[in-house]
Amino acid sequence: MPFKYYGGVHPNYEKTAAKSPVRTIAPPKEVVLPMIQHIGAPNQPTVKVGDTVKMGQLIGASDAPISAPVHASVSGKVVAVEPRRHMLGDMVVSVVIENDFQDTPCEDMQPLTPEQLKDPDAIIARIREAGITGMGGAMFPTAFKIQGARGKVDTLIINGAECEPYLCGDHRTMLEHPEELLKGIELVRIAHGLDKCYYGIERNKQDAIDLLNSLNPAQYGIEIVPEVVKYPQGAEKMQVKAVTNREVKPGGLPSGVGANVVSTYTAYSIYRACYEGVPAIERVVTVAGSGVREPQNLLVRFGTPLEHIFSEAGGFVGDVRRICMGGPMMGICVADISAGSVKGASGLLVFTDKEDRDIEEPVCIRCGNCIAHCPMKLQPIYMYMFVHKGDYKKMEEYHVMDCFECGSCSYGCPGRLPLTHTFKLGKAMLNAKRAEERARAEAAKINAAAAAGKEVHA
Amino acid sequence: MEEKRLFTVSSNPLVRTDRDTTRIMLDVIIALVPALAVGVYQFGVKVLLLLAVSVFSCVFFEWGYRKLMKKSRSVGDLSAVVTGFLLTCVLPSDATWWMCVIGAFFAIVVVKQLYGGIGKNFLNPALAGRAFLTAAYAAFMTSWAIPTTLGATVVDASTMATPLSYLKAGTAMPEYFNYGSLFLGGIPGSMGEVSSLAILVGAAYLLWRKVITWRIPTAFIGTVAVLCLIFGGEGYGRLDWTVYNLLSGGLLLGAFFMATDYSTSPVTLKGQLIFGAGCGALTVLIRYFGSYPEGVSYAILIMNCCAWAVDRVTRPRQFGVSAEDVKAAKSAKKEAKKKAKEAASA
Predict the structure, then answer these.
(1) How far apart, in Å, do the first and last CA atoms of chain B sit?
(2) A418 to chain B: which residues are within 8 Å by CB?
(3) What is the dihedral sign for C-alpha B80, B85, B86, B90?
(4) Residue range(s) in chain A whose domain bears CATH number 3.40.50.11540
């Protein structure tokens, strides 16, 4: 029985693509693979212009502990190593590969042996080498996450909530590859050194819950936890609360309360890396939204220019305003659709003027919806006031830093206040202020030491 | 080279609920229709005329003030229309059209716009307008026309006493004031407050549409009921006394439509309960000991003044913080202060 948590919203789920099977799209003529597709140190390209690469070949790596290598998602010739626009806006060093449409596989990575499949170290090494990151959107290197949590956590939760509207890639994966998925989850469990793990799935995917349960998940050490349908069920903190009734401390990580959360598609990617020897080179992307002609789920190679993906989905319709990577609640807007898709892009949503409900002069009517909706039990209404005033003391007092930007407050605001946006701003302000204070303290220390030194000299 | 198209970027979320301020105000207007319909039936077409004058003046003052002050236009959010509706509801049918205009001016310009408009006022505009009119035109505001359903029973007068004044005086109610007439609306009173049934229908609509929550009305009405049951009234059975107190006067209208006003009530969940209970306690206090038979509007206005303070003291603990954490943080703070003091003295 899952535990309850405060707040949350019930947006229109619009999971129109949930019924359509995943379709593999034709690979593009050219893929653009940015060297940063994760949180952490950027990769250095390991290939140069003119090199011939095979599908799955390592093309970017880093020695830094927090990083995830990048692999060629097609076979062909490297035509450029240059800064290109990343989906998320920055110019990032990218490897551009011209596709030879042969899909010549790279033999570097072989499936793990049955012994290795039981060895946590071998699994974690493979996850790292396959460049797997959090596929839910955060893109945190998974190997590092598991390594850090190993031995410290007693509960592993696989996140199958998929609470964001529109997205249904995880749902389709559960339906189309249930056995592989369960095996992938088993690998994650073994890597954590645990005997049991939980798979939290929202009840709106009852068909998937039934199917997975029919495959006897207990033999893989998995218990399926059907969860209430409520956004942001899939947020890490909410998952931990729903499954274990533990609350992650403000500013803390789930591992602080002995839990670790890994997303569904990450587990599936881990299955493919370990059982099939395929690194992270493709994923299911839900292409949907009112601005897409044929909303559907597509299996897309990383680096595929977004334009190509959209044309595979029938192109745009209507007055397209905004395009986002991920779900509509926490997704990040994409300005330039010539960029290549990256690992964390679980969805590509196209929104027209229909969804554009922002108004020029938002006014708070003190309805209190934001307070009723905030899963962190904060008071967005007052936080908004204090951020606007620039009152740092009050911002701290009202815990602006604890906002994890789920968007529930903005979603439910009838006055159309840019609440979530303001809190992002507030967090940046507080971070800048803290950095300044640290710098001042350091300078004071140095100056004091220098003054003391002078006195001694004199 | 062809110009590359760049799409708009904004912070998340990219989707928002379709319920905006205008839709909420429209819901309140819809919810007030049954109560005012009963008003029209009981007190005649005059009610509609007064409603028209109130709404028109409210909208006019809202528009005019914003225009004069060179502020953005705000009549589109319908909040001024709601104020007009509510003002009509709390006025007796003997009110004159110019009283509606004056009440609307006080409500919209003095109470609402001078503080910055919707969401910024700290008093309920309609109730403040009523309070102003009561102070200025006491005779008009306490003269109650005979409702249509009692037209045949009470023939020798043009006005009559309300059930509340019988309660206040401690004299027995006349026969025609019974549970049925109080519930259905066969009593004298303000234009929108006579029928408990009509108000409850409107309230049910607001609750269903999630415009209001159960907290403030339940705490409000519950407190009045409990206090009336405990203390009773002279000349009445405890149960009779309680039911009459609940069904007469502006209690239900106040609890569902006035106390739940967003800008003048607390936003924290605990605060809303305290606010409702405070309104209830003050209502009973005024009805028992005050010089007016009715205390709902003053009770709400007084609690309006406390709304922000209630918010401040009822902040919930944020996610991930337990009661022990708060205690620990407090004692750590104390300790640090003590140490600082010791260091200073040493």
Answers:
(1) 76
(2) 11
(3) positive
(4) 28-276
Tens digits of residue pLDDT in A309-356 = 999 999 999 999 999 999 999 999 999 999 999 998 999 999 998 888
- What fold, for A282-352? Ubiquitin-like (UB roll) (3.10.20)
Alpha carbons B127 and B131: distance in angstroms, whole number: 6
Residue bearing tokens 């929108």: B192
Which residues lie closer than 8 Å to A132 by C-beta, 6 or more apart? A68, A141, A142, A143, A266, A269, A270, A273, A279, A280
How many angstroms separate the CA atoms of B254 and B257, rounded?
5
A296-301/A332-334 β-pairing: unpaired
Q: How far is CA B320 from CA A85, A241, B280, in A?
A: 39, 9, 34
Sign of CA dihedral A224, A227, A233, A237: negative
Give the pLDDT confidence score for residue A414 in this predicted structure.
94
**Best mutation target, A363, A373, A379, to test chain B (most B CBs within 10 A):** A363
Instruction: Give the residue from A19, A406, A417, A421 showing the smallest Cα distance to A230.
Output: A406
All domains in chain B, ordered by first residue = 21-146+165-313 (1.10.3430)
d(CA A174, CA A167): 13
Distance CA B119, CA A407 (A): 22
B176 closest CA partner among B246, B166, B37: B166
- Contact assignment for B7 to A6 by CB distance below 8 Å: no
Q: Among 3.40.50.11540, 3.30.70.1450, 2.30.30.140, 3.30.70.20, name the CATH number for the domain at A28-276.
A: 3.40.50.11540
CB-CB under 8 Å, B17 with A412: yes
What is the tens place of the pLDDT at every residue in A100-111? 999 999 888 899
What is the rounded distance in angstroms from the CA atom of residue A114 to the CA atom of residue A393? 57
> How large is the ipTM?
0.89
CB count within 10 Å of CB B221 equals: 21
What token pair was written down for A173?
């994966």
The size of chain B, in residues, is: 346
The CATH architecture to which A361-458 belongs is: Orthogonal Bundle (1.10)
Contact B12 A330 (CB under 8 A): yes
The residue among B313, B319, B325, B333 with the most chain A CBs within 10 A of its CB, best to mutate, is B319
Q: Chain B, 28-87: which have a CB under 8 Å from a chain A CB? A: 72, 74, 77, 79
